[in-house]
Amino acid sequence: MEPVSEMPDSRAATNALLAGLREDNLAPDAVVRFLGHAARRSLLQAVRRPRALAELTALHGAMYALAAGRRPGRRWVAASWVLAVLHLGLLERSTRLATADILTLMRANLPALPGGSGRASGVLAIGLDLADGRLARHQGTTSPFGEYADTFADAAYWVWLTLRHEPSRAVRMAAVASWALPVVSVTGLALRRGAMPERPRPVLLRPAAALQAVVALRHLIRR
Predict the structure, then answer these.
(1) Count of C-beta atoms within a 10 Å radius of residue 151
(2) CA distances from residue 14 to 89, 155, 190 in whole angstroms, order as listed
(3) I need a labelling partner for 90 at 20 to 30 A (CA). Which of 48, 63, 150, 221 fits?
(4) Is 145 contained in some domain?
(5) In this structure, are residues 126 and 216 in contact, taking their beta carbons and an 8 Å threshold?
(6) Does any domain span residue 156?
(7) pLDDT tens for residues 52-85?
């Protein structure tokens, strides 16, 4: 069997790791091995894409500079860079970031950037979300990396905006639940089956999109 670290297909590699984890019944030592193999493959895949790694570093370096004087903001950007580097293997055959990927990563880092908590920031996030999806489809640059980054950007930005700026407890609970439920469900299914399930269709994500609009509008008109 081909070593997981050498598998070019990220989904196949993830499924191989999950299958081994399931066979060992999620034992602690199996979890450690899973994390070790996953980290090793992630680093190897990042090194094999020097152009994408350089682009990713330049983008986050610029955002890090914009977050000057805001320590939490700089930590946010640093965490975003680490997560993105560890998932560069999801670019599959591509060796560079697409424009849509850059827009997605900028959306994920809005909380760290100047104006990221402004009244129009929620509307801006929705605009960037629509733009990166359309651009990726138009340019034919859709990839597992873009899908991962999009999910991360939504979870990171909207949970932050809701918990920090939404005063209604009911809206906060409904919003966070709608964004957390798909992630928890997919993770649970993956561990149970020993393979990644198909990404939920848009119909399953409409409640989350609707709550994003609600939170953005309430943030925009709030005094």
Answers:
(1) 18
(2) 11, 21, 10
(3) 63
(4) yes
(5) yes
(6) yes
(7) 999 999 999 999 999 877 668 899 999 999 999 9
- In contact, 79 and 126? CB cutoff 8 Å: no
**pLDDT in the model for residue 130:** 92
Say if 6 falls within a structural domain: no
Q: What residues contact residue 173 under an 8 Å CB cut-off, 6+ apart? A: none
Domain range for 104: 49-221
- Signed CA dihedral, 134, 139, 143, 146: sign only: negative
- Using a 10 angstrom Cβ sphere, with 0-12 exposed, 13-18 middle and 19 or more buried, the burial of residue 205 is middle
Q: Kindly state whether residue 214 falls inside one of the protein's structural domains.
A: yes
- pLDDT of 28 higher than 90: no
pLDDT in tens, 119-161: 999 999 999 999 999 999 999 999 989 988 998 898 889 999 9
Q: Is the pLDDT of residue 104 over 90?
A: yes
Q: What does residue 26 show for φ and ψ, rounded to 5 degrees? A: 60, 30
Higher pLDDT, 159 or 184: 159
Identity (one letter) of the amino acid at 120?
A: A
Q: Which two tokens stand for residue 24?
A: 């060992």
What is the tally of structural domains in the chain? 1
The closest of 142, 43, 155 to 88, measured between CA atoms, is: 43
Q: How many residues does the chain have?
A: 223
